[in-house]
Specification:
The chain is an alpha+beta fold. It has one domain: Double-stranded beta-helix (4-Layer Sandwich), CATH 3.60.130. The chain has 9 helices and 15 strands. The strands form 4 sheets. It has a 7-stranded mixed β-sheet with strand order 1-2-3-13-5-15-4, covered by helices on one side. Strand 9 and strand 10 form a beta hairpin.
């Protein structure tokens, strides 16, 4: 099935021609989508009325092993019964809007920081896939930033300076910045991981910055200098020319490459309006030979 890709911004992101992903099982179409991911980093699919099981099935069929060791799984039991289906919502198991002081709500506020899914794990996240189920009547968008274009725009001196650096990523750190505290047991389950600051993306052959709010410190650097460097790089990478803002519609399905992008949720009145999305994230492991 030939697909077409319509660019949504200067450097990255595209909307894909109508296709029912629930029915896509042939290798040729899956490879077209993977090629689109290599080129654009973020793909938008409209009218994807997934059930939870269908979303999990597609995510595995498309990209292999699912990420289930999320921070949400440490805080509370998954209301869907599967930790690989992350609940990106502001409601409880009864469908009621979370109280302002609910611990799960407090933890999720960090999604408004620029971040990269599962960078605190090893292997880290590769693709994230977000399905919009309930959208509020007010703007509740998601912003993406292109880390490949941001890397390309660096001067040669900076590229040389950061080429071999490695960064410790910790979700405990990114939540602590906003005053959220994990227990000692929770911290032990969320130990963090070290990754290169600059990553070569195999499918595109391009380099990308790999950082965001989970990036806690540069390995081997004094903490103040390392954090200032990371702060400056995030400031550079999130300039308007490197960003795409996605206004959600019900049944939108957005896939992004965590190795090549950062993202953040925008603020809305989450104490008044329901917003429910489901996320699946795959780990950066080789695809099974049958894919």
């Amino acid at each position: 099935m030939p697909l077409s890709f319509t660019p949504l911004s200067q450097h990255f992101a595209a909307e894909v021609s109508p296709v029912d992903l629930r029915a896509v099982r042939d290798r040729a179409t899956l490879e077209q989508i993977r090629a689109g991911m290599d080129r654009y980093g973020v793909l938008v699919f409209r009218e994807q009325a997934f059930t939870d099981d269908e979303q999990l099935d597609f995510a595995q069929r498309f990209d292999g092993t699912l990420h289930a060791k999320t921070s949400a799984s440490v805080l509370a039991k998954n209301r869907f019964g599967n930790e690989a289906l992350t609940d990106i919502s502001n409601v409880n198991a009864q469908g009621e809007i979370l109280a302002a002081d609910d611990r799960r709500r407090a933890g999720s506020l960090a999604n408004r920081l620029w971040h990269t899914d599962a960078s605190f794990e090893d292997p880290a996240g590769r693709y994230s896939m977000l399905s919009a189920r309930v959208i509020p009547p007010v703007p509740a968008d998601t912003e993406f930033a292109c880390m490949r274009a941001a890397y390309d725009a660096l001067d040669e001196q900076t590229k040389a300076r950061i080429a071999e650096l490695r960064v410790f990523h910790s979700i405990v750190y990114s939540r602590h910045v906003l005053g959220f505290e994990f227990s000692e047991d929770e911290k032990a389950r969320l130990k963090g991981a070290v990754h290169p600051l600059v990553r070569l993306i195999p499918g595109s052959g391009r380099r990308a910055l790999y950082l965001a709010s989970h990036a806690a410190e540069v390995v081997g650097w004094p903490i103040p200098e390392g954090r200032l460097l990371l702060h400056d790089l995030i400031e550079h990478a999130t300039q308007p020319q490197f960003r795409y803002r996605h206004p959600w519609r019900v049944h939108d399905f957005v896939i992004w490459d965590n190795r090549a992008t950062m993202h953040r949720a925008s603020s809305f009145d989450d104490k008044t309006y329901r917003r429910e999305l489901r996320r699946t994230t795959t780990l950066d492991l080789p695809l099974p030979s049958t894919a």
